[in-house]
Amino acid sequence: METPEQRNARHKKAMQRKKAHIDQRIAAATTDKGLLLVLTGNGKGKSSSAFGMLARSVGHGLRCGVVQFIKGQWECGEHLLFAEHPQVEFQVMNTGFTWETQDRDSDIAAAEATWAHAERLLADNSIDVVLLDELTYMLTYGYLNPDRVLSALQNRPTSQHVIITGRNASKSLIELADTVSEINDVKHAFNAGIKVQKGIDY
Ligand code: ATP
Ligand code: MG
Predict the structure, then answer these.
(1) What pLDDT band is residue 94 in, cutting at 50, 70 and 90?
(2) Which segments show compositional bias classed as Basic residues (predicted)?
(3) How far does residue 46's CA lie from ligand 2's centre (Å)?
């Protein structure tokens, strides 16, 4: 049977191998560029992850722009925290949930007016990080022209990071992105009849 000393020696050897592998990968990652990140899937955690990156960026003194394409029913904590922050420019689409307005023409007009803010941020090289929250729905519903969106993303300043959230990210968006995470819905409290919780859900 393995003695504790042998177990420790085996662990040490495994950790040394792991460290060598990780160090090698870190040394090989030499490119520095603005990233396009897509957070998609049906599970909870897309917007909250995106705002987590925004918090990190603000912490480092970076200048950030946020455009929220669907305005929720509740005043979100992220808006309360960042809207008045000197490093953040925050724009919210001035309609409610799309299934509440039920008016395609006014939704398109609102999507286009909101997209104009995104386009401006994506052309501004003084903005380090742009968060386009719930943008994917504007493409799924056909409210925005996908070529116009892709072209603004492709032509943005090379050092600018962009984070896009929303379900059903399109194939072309996924192809263009550097980092894509699909969050699975394993379980959600709402489906067990639990109402939305301040701080956790909004
Ligand atoms: P979060 O903002 O909490 O990170 P999200 O951005 O991944 O969520 P959205 O589809 O934008 O998800 O939904 C926002 C709201 O819907 C949040 O209150 C969230 O808790 C809730 N929600 C997210 N995913 C689910 C789900 N699978 N079932 C039920 N409610 C969900
Ligand atoms: Mg969201």
Answers:
(1) confident
(2) 9-20
(3) 5
